[in-house]
Structure formats: structure tokens, C-alpha cells
Amino acid sequence: MTSPLTFPDNQPLNRRNLIKGAAALAATAATMKAASAATAVTPLGQTGALTPSTEPLPLGPLTGGRYPDSHLESLKKPKVSFGPTGFPAFAGTMAVERVATGFRWAEGPVYFPAGRYVLFSDIPNNRIMRFSEDDGHLSVFRQPSMNSNGNTIDREGRLITCEHSGRRVTRTELDGSITIIADKYNGKKLNSPNDAVVASDGSIWFTDPIYGIGGYYEGVKAEPEQEKHNVYRVDPKSGDIRVVIDDFVEPNGIALSPDEKKLYVIDTGFTDGPDNPSHIRVFDLNVEVGKVGNNKVFADMPKPSITDGIRCDTAGRVWCSVGWGDPNEDGVRCYTPDGDLLGKIHIPETVANLCFGGQQRNRLYICGSTSLYAVYTSVQGALKP
What superkingdom does the record give (predicted)? Predict the structure, then answer.
């Protein structure tokens, strides 16, 4: 199956064009029961016109898969170490599954172990969805969600959310009330917070590109008030907000290494122009003082594809999403801590973000455009989602 939306060859494939075209998509079902009757959208010829398909997106193992699942590709020898330099090999009975469908643009998954559920954003539909792992039940957690994008969880089990139309980062308290963590810097509104991570000291690190104010599909169109597209840190005690990195074109996904000595930040500036980056940068990190330094490019993406979301496992390997470009690259990539590509998980849709979940933190949940996918792995996700 191909991505549900493509463009003619003479048009650039970037987020803005994708947003314009995707505004014409019909809504699909929002529950798993309705998913069996949902209609997918497919391109008609090379004109860019769209027509509904009678073929629904099926749940369960992906079509054409057999054990061992060909969607799981190792770029190393099968019998390699499970250490940080070895590919996290998949057992023969592990397979990629589509566990939920019916969304316009799935993003920002986070796993809550206490309830055994995944929360993730459906940005254009202005809602946060909840997928229950124990019985596969899908429900709406919050609507409206202020066009939420990235989500994470803090050390007290509270939801941290980046909101496009709210232009803010919020925390959902245990009683359900919402606290604003950050919505301004130097007296001016943030652009559109995208993704966040919480360090062990409680500090919140988040990215602030302009995607959510570029139109009305993923937020509310507005002029940016912050001249630069920054990475920010919120102090856990004072609540003060300060810029920690200010030289990104479009900062996007963000993650910490398990030992918190490295900070990974994705730059998706390629969406703004062909000469801009499509890569992951890594910084030396001193969490105690909240400072970064000695940065370098950790991994380049094969343009026109970009990576959007990023997570680490307990051995420090880096897992990132891939999409928006070559359909053969759609899915997930896994890198060693040194930046060597170990393997890929192929998904039949553009992938935006991912997170580890499950009772053993060994199930990778993948947000792929209109659907939520999952696959068991031979590794465990780091405790910093």
C-alpha cells in the first residue's frame, strides 16, 4: 500500500504542499469498529485529483507479511550482538501490525504504563486519541486538543503536550486540570511547540518550529513572533524558560540518551527549501546546569525524505521515523549510538513519530499518517519517553 497522498512530479513534496492537498481528504472512521468500513484515499493519475477507494485499511498484520516479516530489515548479519553496536534482531514471530486506523494525521505517541494505553495526537481532527493495549479499544481522550502534536510523560505520570493552536506546552494534572508550562518567551508568543522530553530533574525540553501556524489545517494561521526557531528548557523549580539552541531551521523531534549525556534534536528544515537540512543533530548535555555543547550531525536522512520523531532504547540506540519522500524509505530507522545504520522497519505510510510501550517497554508504537502501528522488538525503550 502506498502513502494516501502524493503530488505530481513538478511539485515539491514538502509539508506545506502536503497540508494543502490533505485538506481535501474525507474523514475516515474514528473507532476500530468503524475502521472496517472506512474508505482510504488514493491518487488519481498524475493530476493530483483524489478519489475514494473501496478498499479499507485492514487491522492486524500487514498484508503480504509472513514469518519472518519482510517489513523488518536488518542491515547487519542476523546473529549480531544485542549490545549498543548490534542490530536489535527481531524474533521470527515478530510482525508489524496495524492496530488502529481512521485518522487524518497521527503524531506524538506516548505510553502510560499505569493504564496500559497509548495516547497520540490526530492533529487536523483536533483530538488526542487513546489506544488501550489490553483489549485494543480505541477512544477519544481529549477533543478539542488545541491541535496537539508531541506528547510525553513526566516523572509523576502526568501528560506533557505541545499544542499548535494554543502555541503552548501544557501539563495535564492527575485530577485532569491543565497547567500552562510555557506559552511565551521574552513577552512574545511561542511559534508552535512541536515535541518535548522530560529529564530526570524534571526540566522540560521542547522544540518550537512554525508548522502549526502555517495554515488552518494543523493549527491557526498566524505570523511568528519569535524570530528564531528555538529549542527551549523549562526550569523544574522556577518555571523559567530559556533558549538552549537557536540555530535550527525547523527543530522538530527531541530525545535524551539513557544516561542523559546526549541530547538529540531533529532538523526538518528541508521542508522550507531543498538546501536546508534533513538530519538529526546530537549535543553533549549537562542536565544539572541545563547546558549543551559540542554538537554534530548524528545522521543524515535520504532527501527528499525527512525524519520527524525520535526515541532511544536502553542501550543508547536511536530509533527515528522516516517519511514524506521515497515510499521505500517510509518507516523507522535504528542507529547505533555512533550513528551507524543498523536496520529499518518498513511501514506502508509516511511515519511521523514513535514510542516504546508495553509492560516490558519492548513494543514499538508507530504513528503512520492515518494509522497506528505496533511491533514487538528484542530491546526495551529507555525510561525517558
Answer: Bacteria
